[in-house]
C-alpha cells in the first residue's frame, strides 16, 4: 500500500477569516458609522510581546497607542475606550496598579475616557481595546489615483532591529519605538485635507502596500530605493499615505512645521503589488 503525504497549502488564517465577514464596513483601519469611527486591536503575550521585554506599564501604554494609531490614520479623534483584559493568575495588586497606570496615563494624554469593558483571569496577559472616535472627514484606504505620490512618516526599520536584539536576549533603548510608538496626530490633523488615502504601518510597509494595492487596484513605481529592513519592519506605527503631486509643497511645509520627517518613495501606477516577506509577529 502506497502512502502519499500531501503538503498542506499555507494560507493566511487572519485574512481568510476576515473574508468570511461580508458587509460594506470591512476594509479600513476602523469602521465608520455616522460620524463615529470604531477600531479594535488585540495585544497578546507571546504574539506581540513577552513580559520580559517591557514593564507592565509600558505594555498597557503600547496596547492603547496601537489602537489610537488606527484612529489617527483615519483622521479621527479618539474619545472613548472599552478595555478587555485577561489577567495572569499570578498577578498581585502592584502588578495591576502598574497596568492601570499605563492605561490611564496614555488615555489621559489623548483625552480618551475608558468607559468600561471586561476582565477574566487566565495564564497569559492579553489585552483587547476598542476605541470609539469621531471624524467629520475620515480618510479611507481606497482612494489612491494613478500618478499620486506615496510617502511614509518618520523612519522605518529600527523596530525590526530592536526586535532581533530582544530575541537574542539583548537590551534595547527605553526610547525604542518597539516600546513606545511615535504617533503622528498633529501631522495628520494639519495634512488630512491634502491626503487621499492613509493607513498605519503595523505589519510592515510591504504588507500595507499590498493591502493598498488590493484596495485600489494599483501598483507602484518606486522612485526611492528601499532596503528590506525598511520594507519589512513591523510594529512601526508610522503612517503611509498618498497625495496629489500638486500638494507636494504644502505637505513638505506641514512636515517641517510639525517636525515630522516624511519620505516620498513611489508613484501609483496601473497593476498590482505583492511582497515577498513573512509576517513579523513572534
UniProtKB/TrEMBL annotation:
<dbReference type="InterPro" id="IPR016188">
    <property type="entry name" value="PurM-like_N"/>
</dbReference>
<feature type="binding site">
    <location>
        <position position="39"/>
    </location>
    <ligand>
        <name>Mg(2+) 4</name>
    </ligand>
</feature>
<feature type="binding site">
    <location>
        <position position="203"/>
    </location>
    <ligand>
        <name>Mg(2+) 5</name>
    </ligand>
</feature>
<comment type="similarity">
    <text>Belongs to the thiamine-monophosphate kinase family.</text>
</comment>
<dbReference type="GO" id="GO:0005524">
    <property type="term" value="F:ATP binding"/>
</dbReference>
<feature type="binding site">
    <location>
        <position position="48"/>
    </location>
    <ligand>
        <name>substrate</name>
    </ligand>
</feature>
<keyword id="KW-0808">Transferase</keyword>
<dbReference type="Pfam" id="PF00586">
    <property type="entry name" value="AIRS"/>
</dbReference>
<feature type="binding site">
    <location>
        <position position="141"/>
    </location>
    <ligand>
        <name>ATP</name>
    </ligand>
</feature>
<keyword id="KW-0418">Kinase</keyword>
<dbReference type="InterPro" id="IPR006283">
    <property type="entry name" value="ThiL-like"/>
</dbReference>
<dbReference type="GO" id="GO:0009229">
    <property type="term" value="P:thiamine diphosphate biosynthetic process"/>
</dbReference>
<feature type="binding site">
    <location>
        <position position="118"/>
    </location>
    <ligand>
        <name>Mg(2+) 1</name>
    </ligand>
</feature>
<comment type="function">
    <text>Catalyzes the ATP-dependent phosphorylation of thiamine-monophosphate (TMP) to form thiamine-pyrophosphate (TPP), the active form of vitamin B1.</text>
</comment>
<dbReference type="InterPro" id="IPR036676">
    <property type="entry name" value="PurM-like_C_sf"/>
</dbReference>
<feature type="binding site">
    <location>
        <position position="200"/>
    </location>
    <ligand>
        <name>Mg(2+) 3</name>
    </ligand>
</feature>
<feature type="binding site">
    <location>
        <position position="70"/>
    </location>
    <ligand>
        <name>Mg(2+) 3</name>
    </ligand>
</feature>
<keyword id="KW-0784">Thiamine biosynthesis</keyword>
<feature type="domain" description="PurM-like N-terminal">
    <location>
        <begin position="28"/>
        <end position="132"/>
    </location>
</feature>
<protein>
    <recommendedName>
        <fullName>Thiamine-monophosphate kinase</fullName>
        <ecNumber>2.7.4.16</ecNumber>
    </recommendedName>
</protein>
<keyword id="KW-0479">Metal-binding</keyword>
<feature type="binding site">
    <location>
        <begin position="117"/>
        <end position="118"/>
    </location>
    <ligand>
        <name>ATP</name>
    </ligand>
</feature>
<dbReference type="GO" id="GO:0009030">
    <property type="term" value="F:thiamine-phosphate kinase activity"/>
</dbReference>
<feature type="binding site">
    <location>
        <position position="70"/>
    </location>
    <ligand>
        <name>Mg(2+) 4</name>
    </ligand>
</feature>
<feature type="binding site">
    <location>
        <position position="29"/>
    </location>
    <ligand>
        <name>Mg(2+) 4</name>
    </ligand>
</feature>
<feature type="binding site">
    <location>
        <position position="29"/>
    </location>
    <ligand>
        <name>Mg(2+) 3</name>
    </ligand>
</feature>
<feature type="binding site">
    <location>
        <position position="202"/>
    </location>
    <ligand>
        <name>ATP</name>
    </ligand>
</feature>
<comment type="pathway">
    <text>Cofactor biosynthesis; thiamine diphosphate biosynthesis; thiamine diphosphate from thiamine phosphate: step 1/1.</text>
</comment>
<dbReference type="GO" id="GO:0009228">
    <property type="term" value="P:thiamine biosynthetic process"/>
</dbReference>
<feature type="binding site">
    <location>
        <position position="41"/>
    </location>
    <ligand>
        <name>Mg(2+) 1</name>
    </ligand>
</feature>
<keyword id="KW-0547">Nucleotide-binding</keyword>
<feature type="binding site">
    <location>
        <position position="273"/>
    </location>
    <ligand>
        <name>substrate</name>
    </ligand>
</feature>
<feature type="binding site">
    <location>
        <position position="41"/>
    </location>
    <ligand>
        <name>Mg(2+) 2</name>
    </ligand>
</feature>
<feature type="binding site">
    <location>
        <position position="70"/>
    </location>
    <ligand>
        <name>Mg(2+) 2</name>
    </ligand>
</feature>
<dbReference type="InterPro" id="IPR036921">
    <property type="entry name" value="PurM-like_N_sf"/>
</dbReference>
<keyword id="KW-0460">Magnesium</keyword>
<feature type="binding site">
    <location>
        <position position="235"/>
    </location>
    <ligand>
        <name>substrate</name>
    </ligand>
</feature>
<keyword id="KW-0067">ATP-binding</keyword>
<dbReference type="GO" id="GO:0000287">
    <property type="term" value="F:magnesium ion binding"/>
</dbReference>
Amino acid at each position: 500500500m502506497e502512502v502519499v503525504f500531501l503538503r498542506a497549502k499555507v494560507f493566511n488564517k487572519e485574512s481568510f477569516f476576515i473574508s468570511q465577514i461580508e458587509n460594506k464596513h470591512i476594509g479600513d483601519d476602523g469602521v465608520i458609522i455616522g460620524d463615529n469611527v470604531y477600531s479594535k486591536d488585540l495585544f497578546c503575550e507571546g504574539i506581540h510581546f513577552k513580559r520580559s521585554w517591557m514593564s507592565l506599564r509600558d505594555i498597557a501604554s503600547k496596547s492603547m497607542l496601537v489602537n489610537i494609531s488606527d484612529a489617527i490614520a483615519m483622521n479621527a479623534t479618539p474619545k472613548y475606550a472599552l478595555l478587555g483584559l485577561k489577567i495572569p493568575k499570578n498577578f498581585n495588586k502592584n502588578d495591576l496598579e502598574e497596568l492601570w497606570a499605563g492605561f490611564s496615563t496614555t488615555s489621559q494624554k489623548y483625552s480618551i475616557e475608558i468607559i468600561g469593558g471586561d476582565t477574566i483571569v487566565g495564564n497569559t496577559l492579553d489585552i483587547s481595546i476598542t476605541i470609539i472616535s469621531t471624524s467629520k472627514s475620515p480618510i479611507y484606504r481606497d482612494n489612491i489615483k494613478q500618478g499620486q505620490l506615496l510617502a511614509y512618516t518618520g523612519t522605518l526599520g529600527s523596530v525590526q532591529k530592536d526586535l532581533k536584539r530582544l530575541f537574542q536576549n539583548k537590551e534595547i533603548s527605553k526610547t525604542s519605538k518597539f516600546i513606545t510608538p511615535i504617533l503622528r496626530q498633529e501631522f495628520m490633523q494639519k495634512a488630512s485635507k491634502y491626503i487621499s488615502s492613509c493607513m498605519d504601518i503595523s505589519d510592515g510597509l510591504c504588507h500595507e502596500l499590498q493591502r493598498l494595492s488590493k484596495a485600489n487596484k494599483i501598483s507602484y513605481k518606486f522612485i526611492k530605493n528601499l532596503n528590506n529592513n525598511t520594507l519589512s519592519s513591523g510594529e512601526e506605527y508610522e503612517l503611509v499615505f498618498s497625495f496629489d503631486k500638486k500638494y507636494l509643497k504644502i505637505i513638505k511645509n506641514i512636515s517641517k512645521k510639525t517636525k515630522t520627517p516624511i519620505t516620498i518613495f513611489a508613484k501609483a501606477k496601473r497593476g498590482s503589488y505583492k511582497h515577498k516577506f513573512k509576517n513579523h509577529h513572534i
